[in-house]
Structure formats: C-alpha cells, structure tokens
C-alpha cells in the first residue's frame, strides 16, 4: 500500500483508497492509505515544528532540492505520464505533457528561490531608510482536484517550498498516485522531515481537520461549491486563502475567423482532456455570418473524434474520470435536450473493449444563454454553441457568465482581437488559440466566480506564498 508522508515517515492508514483506471476498471493502479483527522493534525504539527529551520534554509539549499525534483520528474516523464493516464484517463501524450510541465515548474521555481525580491528606499523622514522584504507565510495547506493530478500539486508546492514555507498537501481522492509519486520524489530530493507532508483521503474529513489544525494559508483548486465553503471557513480563522475554481469559458468565433483554425481551437478547447479542464471552451459563441459553415465543420470534426483507452495511441479522447462525472455529463445532455437545444452529435455512453467511463463528445447548437448547458460548468465533453448577431452581441454573451477564468476569440482582425482582449471579463485571454493550454512561467487565474485571491504560477506566485515586511532603519 502507498502510505501518507507525515514528518518524513511513510505512515499507513485507514482502509485503502483503491485507485482504478477509468479506461479499464479491471486495472487497479494501486492502493493508497486513507488518512484520518488525527493524521492530518500530525502532519500540520510536523510542518509547524520544522518551519523555523526550513524558513531559514538558504536559497541555494531550496533551489538545489527543487531542481533535483524537477530533473527527476523530467527524466521519468514517460513512466509518470503512464501512471497519470492510468489514474485520470487523459491520453498518454497529454499525460506526458502534464508531467513534463510539472518538472519544468520545479525548475522554474528553483530559479525563483534564488531570484529574491526586495527594495531599499529612502524614508520620507531624514536619517531613516526603509527596507521592503518578503518572508514565507508559514504552514501552507494545498488542496488539489483530480483533473491535473501532478501539474496542480506541482504549481502549488514548488513556489510554496521555494519561498521557504512548509506544506501539507491533500490531493483528490480519485488520483492519489501522481501526488504520491511527487511526494516520494521530493522526499528523496532532500527535503528535511516535515517540510512536505502528503495526506491522502476524503476532503470532507481532512479539509476541516486541515483548517482546524492551524495552518497559515490555504491554496485550493476545485469546484466552486467547495471553494466558497472553504473561503468562509478560512475567513473565520484568519487563514490567507487562494481559490481557483470553475469556468464556463467562451470561445468567440468572429465572422472573419479563419475557419479551419477556429474549428481546431474549438475541438481542442472543448474536448481534449475529455473536456475536463477548468479552462475548457464550453461555450462557443459564433457570429451569424460564419455560423452555419463553422457549425457544420465542427460537427463533422466532433463526430470523427476517436474516444478510447488513454494508453491506446489511436485515442484522441480518453474516458471520463469517474462514474459520477459521467452521470453528471449525461444528465446535462438530457437537460440540453429538454431545454430545446439541438444535439448535433455525441452525448452517449460508449461500450468499448475495456470496461470504462467512455462518452462520445456532445455538441449542442441552438443554445440560448439561459439554458443550463450554457450557464453551468459541466466539466466534461459537452459543448454549447450560441449564435450571435454580430461581434458586439457575441462579446455581451461571452461576458454573461458568473465565471471569468479564460476567454478566447478567433479573428483575423487586430482591432477585434484588441477590443476583445480589453473587454473580455476573464483572467486569461487567448487569440486564435484554444482557451485551454497555458504557460507555466506566467500568472494563471481568473475573475468573478472563478478565482479568489492572488494569481498562481510564474513570478506572481510570490504574492500568495510570501508576506511582505517593511522595516524602518534609523541611520
Ligand atoms: P472538488 O471541489 O470536489 O474537490 C477538490 C478538492 O477538494 C479535492 O481534493 C477534494 O477532496 C477536496 N474537498 C472536497 N470537499 C472538501 C471540503 N469540504 N473541505 C476541504 N476539501 C474538500 O473538485 P473536483 O471535482 O476535484 O475538481 C473539479 C473542479 O475543479 C471543477 O469545478 C474545475 O473547474 C475545478 N478546477 C479549477 C481549476 C482552476 O485552476 N481554476 C483547475 C482545475 C480544476
């Protein structure tokens, strides 16, 4: 059994989590220990005890450990990518790409540990200087979702460690394998006991235990419902909090879009990774002039997508991650039909050679902004096409959402692209690119109901994982 990592020791636990392959339910990826609330308290206590020493470690020590972890992740990307594809269900190339990204993130933050920031200023008073410096926040809790089993643990833990924080990480129940592999790598890369703790198991049990144990900051990625509850709980306890939640990301197709490029953006953004990306293009807003040609081509391409086992090189779309997620997707297909949208293709459970959670990608046209499939995050391969009279109408539809993570436009006009970049109410804007697919060295995050708190990733990660100190020096 794969154990929890608490205070540098692998500790067994309660009944195991059986990690099954959603491409083939007969394939057991492994057994993972399910931690108790007491284990969580021990992990936070270990992190607290070791924080004074770790926060005073040299930037070189931290950089060397993160760099070693990054190198090992990159060297093992095919093996770890295979594990990831088996436990989450994204196709092997996507999974290997995700692992490589995790490795690059560690190497980026190895550099950030060395590139410290500070300012020395003259005071407004004579004979005084002001020093502005950054210090680690303390013990940081990380709660991660199932759809990026190694990239999200990496983009939270790498900056946390780089800036001298101690970490307690609670990965999603569905995908403990990649997080466990990361903990193992970090441990062997030389982290002192207690600096990084892995506590696997139920969010409902371990989330409250994490907050009650006395952490200084919480970085959460997951659903809006869980995030909002955690935000209230953190506020009541004075815990610094960062939330990355859902999306209902618009991809706007302007009349002058290059047709094949626009269709490719829609296919990739809506259906790759089985639509299970917070940045997925789940609303495709198409201007009247190009609408019919675009929808016809998109339906043709969607119907031709090959759904299959994540490890089969012929597969373009892997399975849905879980039975519950698949049931949710299919219930949205029913809602779309009941609301009067036209299902152009897909939306059915598929029976393939192995027992898995397979679904054909569903494309709806004729959607109105009020329909559930146009408003609510589905988090699966279900896309809604909305027709717009013109660009202004399309922009209004794009912004008519409680979310604000990513927004995309396909156009050949610099003026439209610039206007959209300025007026899209989203944290990230893509021009002639799918809404999903981001770089690791720049900020990631959204607005409105999608995000709360400072951005993740890139240099901006310092906003969350450090606290600013202003020192006045009498001369
Ligand atoms: P989820 O909210 O169900 O679970 C996320 C994590 O929270 C899991 O580790 C879970 O165990 C834990 N959790 C559950 N209940 C908890 C509680 N009461 N207290 C503390 N922790 C608890 O989300 P999910 O189904 O794993 O992930 C899908 C969601 O994540 C989607 O909404 C998606 O948009 C979002 N997501 C957002 C981003 C982003 O960066 N914006 C990235 C990936 C996924």
UniProtKB/TrEMBL annotation:
Database matches in PANTHER family: ALDEHYDE DEHYDROGENASE-RELATED (PTHR11699)
Active-site residue list: 244
Keywords: Oxidoreductase
Coiled coil start-end: none
Organism classification: Bacteria, Pseudomonadati, Pseudomonadota, Betaproteobacteria, Neisseriales
Family: Belongs to the aldehyde dehydrogenase family.
Residue ranges of every copy of the Aldehyde dehydrogenase domain listed in the record: 16-470
Protein name according to UniProt: Aldehyde dehydrogenase family protein
């Amino acid at each position: 059994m794969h154990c929890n990592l608490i205070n540098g020791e692998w500790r067994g636990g309660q009944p195991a989590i059986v990690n099954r392959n959603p491409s083939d339910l007969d394939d057991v990826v492994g057994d993972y220990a399910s931690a108790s609330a007491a284990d969580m308290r021990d992990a936070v206590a270990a992190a607290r005890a070791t924080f004074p020493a770790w926060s005073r470690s040299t930037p070189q020590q931290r950089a060397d450990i993160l760099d070693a972890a990054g190198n090992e992740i990159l060297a093992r990307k095919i093996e770890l990518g295979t594990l990831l594809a088996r436990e989450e269900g994204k196709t092997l190339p996507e999974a290997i790409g995700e692992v490589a990204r995790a490795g690059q993130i560690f190497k980026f933050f190895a550099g950030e540990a060395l590139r410290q920031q500070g300012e020395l200023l003259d005071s407004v008073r004579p004979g005084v200087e002001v020093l502005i410096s950054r210090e680690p926040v303390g013990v940081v809790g990380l709660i991660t979702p199932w759809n990026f089993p190694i990239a999200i643990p990496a983009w939270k833990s790498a900056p946390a460690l780089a800036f001298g924080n101690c970490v307690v990480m609670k990965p999603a129940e569905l995908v403990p394998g990649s997080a466990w592999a990361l903990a193992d790598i970090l441990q062997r890369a030389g982290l002192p006991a207690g600096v990084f703790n892995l506590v696997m198991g139920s969010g409902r049990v371990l989330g409250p235990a994490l907050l009650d144990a006395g952490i200084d900051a919480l970085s959460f990625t997951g659903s809006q419902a869980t995030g909002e509850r955690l935000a209230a709980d953190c506020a009541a306890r004075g815990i610094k909090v960062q939330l990355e939640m859902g999306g209902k990301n618009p991809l706007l197709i302007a009349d002058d879009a290059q047709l094949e490029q626009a269709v490719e953006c829609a296919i990739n953004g809506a259906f790759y990774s089985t639509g299970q990306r917070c940045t997925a293009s789940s609303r495709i807003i198409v201007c009247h002039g190009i609408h019919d040609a675009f929808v016809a081509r998109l339906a043709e391409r969607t119907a031709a997508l090959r759904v299959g086992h994540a490890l089969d090189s012929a597969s373009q779309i892997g399975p849905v991650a879980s039975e519950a997620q698949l049931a949710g997707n299919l219930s949205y297909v029913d809602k779309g039909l009941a609301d009067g949208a036209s299902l152009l293709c897909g939306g059915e459970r598929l029976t393939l050679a192995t027992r898995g959670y397979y679904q054909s990608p569903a494309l709806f046209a004729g959607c109105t902004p009020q329909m559930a499939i146009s408003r609510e995050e589905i988090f699966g391969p279900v896309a809604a096409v909305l027709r717009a009279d013109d660009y202004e109408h399309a922009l209004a539809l794009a912004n008519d959402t409680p979310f604000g993570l990513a927004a995309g436009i396909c156009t050949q006009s610099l003026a439209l692209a610039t206007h959209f970049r300025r007026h899209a109410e989203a944290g990230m804007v893509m021009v002639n690119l799918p809404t999903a697919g981001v770089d690791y060295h720049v900020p990631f995050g959204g607005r409105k109901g999608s995000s709360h708190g400072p951005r993740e990733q890139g240099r901006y990660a310092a906003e969350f994982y450090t606290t600013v100190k202003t020192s006045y020096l009498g001369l």
